[in-house]
């Protein structure tokens, strides 16, 4: 790959964004940036410090005191909050519930987008989130909107929890995912939507390697 390339992957919860983005990054030697982990870390820090998640200014003030580092490892992204490993803590039901509210504030998003652009400027990068193709990197060479039915997405998350030996309730998961999707898609600032020029990939009946291949073919196309 000769030219600088950015890949933007957006879509709802459980569509497979982080799994396939990490695999595409590994195969094409791209820097992988999990932007959802950044919003999750702020939500976690807000809960830990009793900061009101409805108060955008207070959240921005908190964010200004936080360093959030994403360290890519074979098993996934390790997340460091002021150098403390919070990789597991940011994936709890409590964080799932509050993160869309935290992410709805303009002051928070402006700062996050700036940090994400700075990270992406370090090289060829693949970012996944909700507003990558629409706001963070609107000029990304490749934009993908990954989707799947809510039933399949909830089932995937359920299996993931069971595999980790964690308690899981499929109906609760389905409700949580549907609620989060609605909040993310209807917020005023940078709502989740398919970016202009994005290719929609429905992963409902695709395996992970099939989705990875589809994306790699889309990435190779514009630069071949
Ligand atoms: O992995 P999952 O799809 O469940 O979520 P995530 O990518 O970790 O993102 C968690 C939450 O952060 C989302 O539900 C959004 O509320 C927010 N988010 C966002 O607003 N913009 C982004 N670029 C990424 C995440
Ligand atoms: O990042 P996002 O919330 O979009 O989804 P993910 O965390 O990458 O994927 C959720 C779960 O679905 C993971 O356990 C993946 O292994 C699984 N998955 C799948 O079974 N089939 C796919 N085509 C994509 C993901």
UniProtKB/TrEMBL annotation:
Binding site for ATP: 11-19
Gene3D superfamilies: P-loop containing nucleotide triphosphate hydrolases
One record GO biological process: pyrimidine nucleotide metabolic process
GO terms assigned for molecular function: ATP binding; dCMP kinase activity
Gene Ontology CC, one term: cytosol
Start and end residues of each Cytidylate kinase domain: 7-220
Claim: Transmembrane helix is one of the keywords in the record: no
Catalytic activity: CMP + ATP = CDP + ADP; dCMP + ATP = dCDP + ADP
InterPro entries to which the protein is assigned, alphabetical: Cytidylate_kin, Cytidylate_kinase_dom, P-loop_NTPase
Subcellular location(s) per record: Cytoplasm
Major localisation: cytoplasm
Keywords, ordered alphabetically: ATP-binding, Cytoplasm, Kinase, Nucleotide-binding, Transferase
Domain of life (superkingdom): Bacteria
Entry-linked Pfam families: Cytidylate_kin
CDD domains hit by this protein: CMPK (cd02020)
NCBIfam families per UniProt: cmk
PANTHER family for the chain: CYTIDYLATE KINASE, CYTIDYLATE KINASE/PANTOATE-BETA-ALANINE LIGASE
Family: Belongs to the cytidylate kinase family. Type 1 subfamily.
Protein name, UniProt field: Cytidylate kinase
Species name: Halalkalibacter alkaliphilus
């Amino acid at each position: 790959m000769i030219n600088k390339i950015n890949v933007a992957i957006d879509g709802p919860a459980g569509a497979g964004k982080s799994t396939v983005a990490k695999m595409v990054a590994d195969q094409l030697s791209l820097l992988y940036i999990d932007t959802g982990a950044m919003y999750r870390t702020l939500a976690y820090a807000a809960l830990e410090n009793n900061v009101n998640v409805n108060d955008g200014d207070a959240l921005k003030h908190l964010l200004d005191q936080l360093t959030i580092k994403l360290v890519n490892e074979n098993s996934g992204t390790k997340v460091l909050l002021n150098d403390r490993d919070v990789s597991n803590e940011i994936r709890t039901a409590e964080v799932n519930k509050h993160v869309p509210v935290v992410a709805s504030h303009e002051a928070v998003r402006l700062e996050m987008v700036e940090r994400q652009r700075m990270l992406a400027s370090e090289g060829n990068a693949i970012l996944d989130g909700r507003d990558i193709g629409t706001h963070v990197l609107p000029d990304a060479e490749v934009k993908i909107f990954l989707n799947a039915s809510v039933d399949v997405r909830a089932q995937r998350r359920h299996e993931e929890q069971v595999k980790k030996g964690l308690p899981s309730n499929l109906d609760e998961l389905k409700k949580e995912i549907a609620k989060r999707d609605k909040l993310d898609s209807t917020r005023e600032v940078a709502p989740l939507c398919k970016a202009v020029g994005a290719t929609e990939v429905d992963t409902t009946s695709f395996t992970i390697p099939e989705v990875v291949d589809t994306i790699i073919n889309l990435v190779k196309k514009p630069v071949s």
